[in-house]
Design a protein that fits this description.
Layout: E1 3-6, E2 14-17, H1 23-35, E3 36-43, H2 49-59, E4 64-68, E5 71-77, E6 89-90, H3 95-105, E7 111-115, H4 126-134, E8 138-141, H5 142-145, E9 150-153, E10 161-163, H6 169-181, E11 185-189, H7 197-204, E12 209-212, E13 215-219, E14 224-225, E15 229-230, H8 235-247, E16 252-259, H9 266-273, E17 277-286, E18 289-297, E19 305-306, H10 311-314, H11 318-326, E20 330-334, H12 347-357, E21 361-365, E22 368-373, E23 381-383, H13 388-397, E24 405-408, H14 420-427
Parallel strand pairs: 2-16, 3-14, 3-15, 6-7, 10-11, 19-20, 23-24
Antiparallel strand pairs: 1-24, 3-5, 4-5, 7-9, 8-9, 11-13, 12-13, 16-18, 17-18, 20-22, 21-22
This protein binds shikimate-3-phosphate (S3P) and phosphoenolpyruvate.
The site of phosphoenolpyruvate has 10 residues, from helix 3.
């Protein structure tokens, strides 16, 4: 296991940066291009481990995909042309690959076996297996298909109307993709709007959808037509440097070409609520995705309460928001975020354990955490437990913690941000 020593104490962040491509959009680009007729070019693809798992899954179904750094060319085979893989599909660490792919495989006339790493194997799959079974899917695994490994025997599927009990873009997307292969019109309703990259990109590939507030309808048996995709920078990766700059002394940073899809920009709302000095410029829309730049500088931070419908819009940013809250004046309360318990780690437990080890005043609750600040942080032993976002949060904590932090399992950061430390080192002076 890789241990990294982190000593960035009192460094400033300065300059301009473009973060790597968006993870959610990169996954979908490979999936939809593989299912399309024709050749699609994906630029600024995130070559992180999770998205490579998606590429490998479609290669095993006979799709010719060439990847050179962040350029990916996909020779789509059409949905009907996807072949039965001869080997089990390894989903690695990727929840997104698992839930979306299950939606596609459930309706193909083949047999599939799927497995993942130790973390993915204990993440819930019943949230997608249950609605797919209602559509006629045959999926089996431990505890009625609650967990990987799973066996899928593809079937003719029928449309459903499904109200998602969890606020999850992965569930919404998996059901919509099954709906694309099914007979009839599938409708997915959600209580709060989750990220809508599936809806945006399916339309770019020529699929017709109806969207009415938090309800999406898709008619089955539509074909996808190849489409070039330019992936915007990942705001979830940018979030680490936004918070780093707000926390570090004499710091000023511009992040260019970053995705500003409103279903993803909850972090910008939270930064404003906490008095962080940021300025956002919206520049263009490509493939239904808004792109622009964000400027941020060192700030005096104020505590806040974060709850309700904003949670799905910041779900992956909560670990780094928790670090910011340790330096805010007052009590920050994060609630309605029980979904954090089902990520690469139980992120309520792993955030609290690591920030406590660094001296923060933070307590877990059932559905979030309470943080009292500001507290001076001090180096200690920390552990990502294989969770990329926990690893990056600890690395950013090192800018304000006194001494050298020891981070166990730092290598997992390459799941979503392989060049994270190179970028951090470039910005420090
Ligand atoms: O659809 C997606 O690309 C994602 C949805 C979210 O998961 P949930 O749908 O489980 O909330 C998010 O945490 C994950 O990083 C990516
Ligand atoms: C939760 C995440 O990803 P996934 O669910 O795809 O593993 C994440 O990237 O923080």
């Amino acid at each position: 296991m890789s241990t990294k020593l982190l000593n960035y104490t009192n460094q400033s962040i300065k300059g301009a940066i473009q973060v790597p491509g968006d993870k959610s959009i990169s996954h979908r680009a490979v999936m939809f291009a593989s299912m399309a007729n024709g050749t699609s070019l994906i630029t600024n693809f995130l070559a992180g481990e999770d998205c490579i798992s998606t590429i490998n899954a479609f290669r095993s179904m006979g799709v010719n995909i060439t990847q050179e750094n962040d350029n990916v060319t996909v020779n789509g085979r059409s949905i009907a042309g996807l072949k039965e893989p001869l080997v089990p599909i390894n989903l690695g660490n990727s929840g997104t690959t698992s839930r979306l792919l299950l939606g596609i495989l459930a309706g193909l006339p083949h047999h599939f076996t799927l497995f993942g790493d130790a973390s993915l194997t204990v993440r819930p799959m019943d949230r997608i297996v249950v609605p797919l079974s209602l559509m006629g899917a045959q999926i089996d695994g431990r505890e009625q298909g609650k967990y990987l490994p799973l066996a899928v025997r593809g079937k003719e599927l029928n449309a459903i109307t499904y109200h998602t009990p969890v606020k999850s873009a992965q569930v919404k997307s998996g059901v919509l993709l099954a709906g694309l292969l099914a007979n009839g019109t599938t409708v997915v309703e959600e209580d709060a709007k989750t990220r809508d990259h599936t809806e945006n990109m399916l339309q770019a590939f020529g699929v017709k959808l109806e969207i009415d507030k938090n309800t999406v309808s898709i008619e089955g048996k539509q074909q996808l037509t190849a489409c070039d995709i330019q992936v915007p920078g990942d705001i979830s990766s940018a979030a680490f440097f936004l918070v780093a700059t707000a926390l570090a002394k004499n710091s000023k940073l511009t992040i260019d070409e970053v995705g500003l899809n409103p279903t993803r920009t909850g972090i910008l709302d939270v930064l404003k609520m906490m008095d962080v000095d940021i300025d956002v410029v919206e520049e263009k829309t490509i493939g239904g995705e808004l792109i622009g730049s964000i400027k941020v500088q060192s700030s005096d931070i104020k505590a806040t309460t974060i709850e309700g419908d904003i949670i799905p819009r910041i779900i992956d940013e909560i670990p780094i928001i928790a670090l910011l809250a340790t330096q805010a004046s007052g009590k920050t309360i994060i609630k309605d975020a029980e979904e954090l318990r089902f990520k690469e780690t139980d992120r309520i437990a792993s955030v609290v354990e690591n920030l406590k080890a660094l001296g923060a005043n933070i307590e877990p609750t059932n559905d979030g955490m309470i943080i009292n600040g500001p507290t001076k942080l001090k180096a200690n032993k920390t552990n990502s437990y294989g969770d990329h976002r926990i690893g990056m949060m600890v690395a950013i904590a090192s800018l304000i913690a006194e001494g050298t932090i020891e981070l166990s399992d730092a290598a997992c950061i390459s799941v979503s941000y392989p060049r994270f430390f190179e970028d951090l080192d470039k910005l420090i002076n």
